[in-house]
Design brief:
Layout lengths: L2 E5 L14 H7 L4 E5 L8 H11 L2 E5 L13 H21 L3 E3 L16 H21 L3 E5 L12 H11 L4 E6 H7 L3 H12 E5 L15 H11 L4 E4 L7 H7 L9 H17 L7
Parallel strand pairs: 1-2, 1-8, 2-3, 3-4, 4-5, 5-6, 6-7, 7-8
Length: 289
C-alpha cells in the first residue's frame, strides 16, 4: 500500500537523542512513515528510537549521506574503506529497527565534485564498495539499499534513473534499488513517468516527494498527478516521503543552497505538503490499493 512519510530533516539537521520527539510528532501529524536521516551511524541512539517506534507503531526507514571522509569514489583506499564501514553500520541499524530501506547518497561523497564526468575508475571503486555492503546486507538483513539520483550540482556520479539502474545491475544483488526524488528529477530527467518506467517495479525502491524549489509539495512545478499515476502503473507500493530543510540549518542549507524560507517552518511545510499530496492522490482511483 502506498503511504506518505516525512523526513527527520524537517525538524533536525543531525538526528540525535534529543530529537526522539520527532517520531511521535510525525505520527501525530498523520504520517505513516518516518525517514530518519542518519549522518553519524556510530552515535545513532538506537535503543531510544526502538522505544519510540514501539510506542507509536510508526514505520521507520532511513537515509544517509556519505561525505568526503566516507567517499567510495575517493582515490584514497582508506576513505573508501570508511565508506564500507559506514554503510555496514547502517545495515546493522536498519536490521535492529526492522527498517526495510536505506536510501540517500550512499554510493559517493555528497558534494564531492571532480569537475569532470564520472570516470570508469570511480565506477569500479563505488561498485566494488557497494557490492561488499550489499553482500553483507544480503547475509544479515532483508531490506534494500536504494541509491538516490541527485542533481549535477551535488554529484557527478548518479544523476538520472537510467544510470542508477545500470549501477544496481553492476552491483548485481537483488537488494539494490533506485531512490527517486522529485526535486532532483525536475532538473535532470526528461520525463517523470519515463524515469519511473525506466526503474520499473524491479528497481524502484524508494521515493521522495519534494517540490522543485524544496518548498511545500503541490505548490510548484512537479507534475505529481503524472508521477503518482506512473508509480501506480509499475506497481510501486513503498513510502512517499516529504523531505526539506530549514534555512537555519547551517551545513545542510549551505550544501543545498536554501537561502529563503519555503514555509513558516519545516513542520508547516510538512503539514501543508501532506494535505496537498493526499488531495492529488485521493483524486486518482485505486491509488491506495
Amino acid at each position: 500500500m502506498r503511504r506518505f512519510g516525512v523526513d527527520s530533516f524537517i525538524w533536525s539537521e543531525v538526528f540525535s537523542e534529543k530529537d526522539i520527539w520527532i517520531i511521535p510528532k510525525a505520527k501525530e501529524l498523520g504520517f505513516s512513515v518516518i525517514d530518519l536521516a542518519i549522518a553519524h551511524p556510530e552515535s545513532f541512539p538506537l535503543e531510544k528510537v526502538l522505544e519510540a517506534k514501539e510506542q507509536t507503531g510508526i514505520e521507520v526507514v532511513t537515509t544517509t549521506t556519505l561525505g568526503l571522509d566516507t567517499n567510495p569514489i575517493s582515490p584514497d583506499p582508506e576513505i573508501r574503506n570508511n565508506a564500507v564501514r559506514h554503510m555496514k553500520t547502517m545495515v546493522d541499524i536498519n536490521r535492529a529497527l526492522d527498517s526495510k530501506i536505506i536510501g540517500g547518497v550512499n554510493y559517493a561523497g555528497w558534494g564531492y565534485l571532480t569537475r569532470k564526468p564520472r570516470s570508469e575508475q570511480e565506477w569500479e571503486w563505488s561498485v566494488k564498495a557497494m557490492r561488499e555492503v550489499s553482500d553483507y546486507a544480503m547475509d544479515n538483513w532483508d531490506g534494500i539499499i536504494a541509491v538516490e539520483c541527485v542533481n549535477r550540482f551535488e554529484t557527478h556520479f548518479l544523476n538520472i534513473a537510467s544510470d542508477a539502474v545500470d549501477y544496481c545491475k553492476a552491483v548485481g544483488n537483488a537488494n539494490m534499488k533506485v531512490h527517486l526524488d522529485c526535486f532532483h528529477m525536475i532538473r535532470e530527467e526528461r520525463s517523470f513517468s519515463g524515469a519511473v518506467k525506466t526503474c520499473g517495479k524491479e528497481y524502484l525502491g524508494y521515493v521522495h516527494v519534494n517540490e522543485n524549489d524544496r518548498g511545500i509539495p503541490g505548490t510548484g512545478l512537479v507534475p505529481f498527478d503524472e508521477f503518482f499515476r506512473a508509480l501506480m502503473e509499475i506497481g510501486y507500493e513503498g513510502p512517499l516521503t516529504i523531505e526539506s530543510f530549514d534555512p537555519s540549518f547551517e551545513e545542510l542549507s549551505g550544501n543545498c543552497a536554501i537561502w529563503r524560507k519555503m514555509a513558516e517552518s519545516g513542520e508547516a511545510l510538512a503539514i501543508e505538503g501532506l494535505k496537498n499530496l493526499k488531495a492529488i492522490a485521493d483524486a486518482i482511483p485505486g491509488f491506495y490499493d
